[in-house]
Amino acid sequence: MAFASSSVVAATASASSCITDTKKHDVFISFRGEDTRSNFTSHLHAALCRNNIETYIDYRINKGEEVWGQLVEAIKDSTLFLVIFSENYASSTWCLNELIEIFECKKNGEPHVIPVFYRIDPSQVRKQTGSYKEAFAKHRQNEEKVYLWKDVLCEVAYLSGFHSDLYRFYFIFF
Question: How many angstroms separate the CA atoms of 140 and 136, rounded?
Answer without folding.
Answer: 6
